[in-house]
Amino acid sequence: MSILWIWRVKLISSRTQAADPCSVTSASEACKQRRKALTALTGLGAACLGFRAWPAHAQVPAAYPNRPIRLVVGFPPGGGIDFTARVIQPALEAALGQSLVIDYKPGAGGVVAATEVTRAAPDGYTLLVANTGPFAIAPYLQAKPPYDPIKQFTYIGQITEGGYIVATRANHPASDLRQFIDWARTQPGKGNFASGGQGSATHLNGELLNAVTGLDLLHVPYKGSAPAVTDLIGGQTHVLIDAGTVLVPHVKSGKLKALAVTGSRRDANLPEVSTVREQGLSGLESTGFQGLVGPAGLPASVVDRLATELRKVLALPEVKARFAGVGSDVQPRGPLEFSAYVKSEADRWADLIRKRKLQLD
């Protein structure tokens, strides 16, 4: 079909009407049928022209990803979550063929960032480095949780898992956690513990220390681990229980002293530091996790792509080495396994929250 064809149809139609004894005002049945046939013929030509107006190939959605991805970090630069984001960033960028732009949204122990991600479009262009505090602890500390950590997120994959380091200032008189507890008992009402924020894993680790030992250390929250470490080094606070990614470099540099490891085995980077179980404090055993999530409703194809590439990144020797260097083990759980693991950790911390009658609001 072509424009010329339609022009001919219209020309035939006009000539026929000019010579036709059936005028436009004729009401005979034969004339009505004739005019109807001519109108249909002209319309068919127009429809064919419309068909030819479409492009030769129908447009389909571009392959994911086709633009930079925002990677939200709920804590300030210099902390453990920032470390994780920066370790996976270059390799994941190379695998996906797009930039991962780290966006810091600190506040409320990671809750501010997590809440923002629940409101993001489920298109795969806003992701979050999830961790223990805002996913297994903080929501359960509030009478009205800001989000459901299981239902309002799409789980992509776990990144790491590892025990925490119990640390104090370098010149503290205690040489291990048992001695620190004895020291704290001689300082009633004066001892304290630092954390990376209300509802963070560092907060609950301090509460666990109080619960297991009978101490009453005052909680001193900070907006992230980095400022908490700064004040711990300066002696403004007495103890911090945080991830190896945060504390190991400062222990190795001599700025901090490690008192114990909360994992089931000693940290390869601090082999001389005994575990809490070895010190007769098995009730203090705990581990933390980090992983990748997005808002609820991510398309399955996007989740599959991200999970596949993340698993490949975590298998890289250089990535494993960087995490191992700060005492973290790579843990490449997939979407379903990661979600189930977070749920089990939330149940465990919820028990402590009930026993300590903790609440943020």
Summarize the structure in words.
The protein is 44% helix and 17% strand. The relative contact order is 0.15. Helix 3 crosses helix 10. It has three domains: 3-53; 69-162 and 287-356, Bordetella uptake gene, domain 1 (D-Maltodextrin-Binding Protein, domain 2, 3-Layer(aba) Sandwich); 163-284, Periplasmic binding protein-like II (D-Maltodextrin-Binding Protein, domain 2, 3-Layer(aba) Sandwich), CATH 3.40.190. By secondary structure, the chain is α/β, with parallel strands linked by helices. It contains twelve helices and ten strands. Helix 7 (201-213) links the parallel strand 5 (192-195) and strand 6 (218-221).
Entry summary:
The chain is of the alpha/beta class and 361 residues long. It has twelve helices and ten strands.
Keywords:
361 residues; alpha/beta; D-Maltodextrin-Binding Protein, domain 2; 8-stranded mixed β-sheet; 12 helices; 10 strands; globular; disordered N terminus
